[in-house]
Design goal:
This protein is about 40% helix and about 15% strand. With about 250 residues, it is α+β, with helices and mostly antiparallel strands. A four-stranded antiparallel β-sheet has the order 1-2-4-3, with helices on one face. A two-stranded antiparallel sheet has the order 5-6. A hairpin with a 1-residue loop joins strand 5 and strand 6. Helix 3 packs antiparallel against helix 4. The radius of gyration is 20 Å and the shape is globular. The two termini are about 35 Å apart. The chain binds flavin mononucleotide. Flavin mononucleotide (FMN) binds next to loops.
Length: about 250
């Protein structure tokens, strides 16, 4: 078991575990099992989400738990229509690959979770949201990520489904107009977790080279060579088995 040594310091083993959780978190679509998620697990996931950072400690989120068949099927129907529209938006060469991708597990996942943002929760003027007004939306995304990582360490799969007309989903779920839909998640036990993202395995997109994304001092100025080298070394140390994930192959 990884233990906090005291209130402030984590053990090396705990640190390594956190990185493992981060690298092995996956968006799950095709591997859900029908076994229900127990309330104690769901409670822990919700608690993890609720402990995310939020601008002005606004905690603008709500969590709508969906377990009944009828609603899950209705939401799947909304996805299907939007996904047919989505396929046509890509250039013709990519359409058939797009159509071959599994982009949701709405019918197989026993639990859906809709995470919303109430932008009025803390009144009109919010500490930290005074100038960059979208910070409450981003705070809610932090809650999603907390839940996603907590789920992985519980060996529970999470898939984020966003191919919907937001208004149609809100209407079906009775979500008020002024509440923003941030994430529609499918959650369930899984047969297995893949090591690499589905979109990478299926040839849609590769992970980018981190060193090409890091700059220093000003935009488009390359990072210091010692940082670049450290990124390559740490990647090789943390992910020794992952050829495709490594910046060293590029
Ligand atoms: C905001 C957001 C929306 C997403 N929407 C979808 C979606 O509609 N369908 C889908 O299959 N995956 C969706 N994903 C999952 C991404 O495709 C996935 O995170 C990415 O391919 C990397 O894979 P990984 O999460 O397994 O590392 C979404 C992810 C995010 C962060």
């Amino acid at each position: 078991m990884t233990m906090k040594e005291n209130g402030l310091t984590f053990t090396t083993a705990a640190r390594e575990t956190l990185y493992e959780v981060i690298f092995n978190r996956r968006d799950v679509r095709g591997e859900f099992q029908s076994t229900p998620i127990s309330d104690d697990i769901l409670a822990r996931l919700l608690i993890a989400a609720h402990h995310a950072p939020s601008v002005g400690f606004m905690q603008p989120w709500n969590f709508l738990v969906i377990r009944d068949d009828k609603t899950r099927h209705d939401i799947h129907a909304l996805f299907k229509t939007a996904n047919e529209e989505a396929a046509k938006m890509f250039e013709s060469g990519k359409q058939s690959l797009y159509q071959s991708l599994k982009l949701e597990g709405l019918l197989t996942a026993p639990l859906h979770l809709c995470i919303t943002c109430d932008r009025n929760r803390a009144g009109p003027v919010v500490l930290g949201r005074t100038h960059m007004t979208e910070m409450d939306l981003y705070s809610t995304v932090c809650a999603v990520q907390n839940l996603w990582l907590a789920a992985r360490v519980e060996n529970i799969g999470v898939g984020w489904v966003s191919i919907f007309h937001e208004e149609e989903v809100k209407k079906r779920l009775g979500i008020p107009e002024d509440i923003h839909l941030i994430a529609y998640l499918t959650i369930g036990h899984v047969s297995s977790f893949h090591q690499k993202p589905d979109l990478a395995r299926k040839g849609w997109r590769k992970r980018l080279n981190l060193n090409e994304l890091v700059m220093e001092t000003e935009w488009e100025r390359q990072a210091d060579l010692s940082l670049t080298t450290s990124i390559n070394e740490e990647l090789a140390r943390l992910m020794p088995d992952s050829e495709e994930e490594s910046n060293l192959d590029e």
